[in-house]
Each structure stands twice: as C-alpha cells, then as structure tokens.
Specification:
The chain has 251 residues and is mainly alpha-helical. The protein has twelve helices and two strands. It has helices spanning 2-11, 34-51, 63-75, 77-80, 91-106, 111-117, 123-129, 135-163, 173-183, 185-209, 212-228, 232-250, and strands at residues 58-61, 86-89. The protein has a two-stranded parallel ribbon. Helix 5 packs antiparallel against helix 10 and helix 11 packs antiparallel against helix 12.
Amino acid sequence: SWAAFHANLLAAHVDAPLDISSLLPMFQEVAKSMAMIRDSMTVIKQSVHFLNPNQIPVMTCDQPLYALAKAIQWNWPNIFSEEQIVVLFGGLHIKIATLRTIGSWLENSGWTSALSQAGIASSGTADSFLKASHVSRSRHAHEVTACALYILMKRSYKLFLDDQDPEKSSVSFEEWREQSEIDSPLFHYWSVTLRFELMILLFVRSLREGKFSLYKDSIAQLIPWFFALDHPNYARWLPVHLRDMMALTSI
C-alpha cells in the first residue's frame, strides 16, 4: 500500500525506538456512556503506568466519546486531569468530518456531474463522495479535483499573459488570481474550493508523516469551515482539541 511504501522510505531516515505495546480488553458494554468512558480511562491509566510508569497515558476517541472524556476530565480533575491523561481526537474521524464538510460546500455545484462525465466515477459513486461514504475514494476524488483545478488555473494564467502587453506581463500568478476572484464569482468559488482541498490534503499529510506542527496548523485552518458550513459538533470540539495540542507544545 501507499502508506507502507511511505513508511519504508521514512524508516531509512528515522531511528525510532520500539514501543512497549499491550492489547487492552474489549468492552462488552456500549461505549457511549459516561460510566463506560470513565472506566476505560481508569483501565488505560493503570495499564500505561504498569508498562511505563513515566509515560502520560494518551486516549484517542471519535467526537461523541471525546465530548464525554473531556466532561470527565473537567468534572474529576483530581483523577483525570489534562496533565494526567491526554485525550485526542481520532485523526480518521477528523478526516471523515472534513471530507463531509467540503461535500457540503460542493453540493449542487456540478462537481459530481463533472466527475461522472469525466469517467472518474459513476454518478452514484460521485454522489457518495459528498458524504465521504468511502474515505479513500473520496480523498482520491478531491486529489484529482485539486490537480485539475490547479492545471486549469495555470492554463488560464498563461492565456492571460499571452494576451497582455509585454510591459504588463510581470503580473504574478497570485496577483492575477486575487484579481480574477474579484472579477468572477465562479472563479472565486473554485479558487476557494482548491484552497479548501489543499487544507484537507495537508492535514492528511500531517497524519501520515507525523508532523505535529503541520497537524496543528492544518486543524486551525479547517476549524472555521466547520462553523461556516454548519457542522456544529466538530466546530464545538475541535477548538478544544487544538487548545490541548497547543498546551502539549508548551510542556
């Protein structure tokens, strides 16, 4: 797979020690309860302290469980404070949420019709990209879209330079892009779409390459989109997650 190939390339340059790992017991009860999350945090703390007493436990959750875990930390700070256990948002869940958010942005834009007419996906599969029903395929569709938008933008810029006088040909690509966004609402829409897709791809890169600074920066850029496109759960809790990540940096 691509991930294994990329990991092999990085392994030649990174000398990382092996982690001490252990398989925790599976829950028999439903996880979406305050009591179950509190019990799981207790088990995680005891297990990590047994394997490595000097390590701060780290727990990864999706959005509903993350909200419960943070509520536990705030209500029982003497046992589960943010200095005693770190609760993280799951990277896969953030990626799915961002793909669904850009799906809300692209809905009724003609994007799915363009994908089906180009032969990239059938009409039904293209519609599923809006809801990120299949994460890898949805991400690939946005990769193709970002490449196509950038190529078309560069072609338009070249045509602009060909039509200008030699004295005005010094207009940079970014200056031309900003002016085109002002002149054309359609150009502005797809230019913003390209920026949004590049934000998502940068977030995916931060996960795959383990770049913590890029991870924080990409989340900070994505948070306003959850507010703008009415995804309240991630708009409410991602800023809390980002605050925790900033606190980890200062430690």
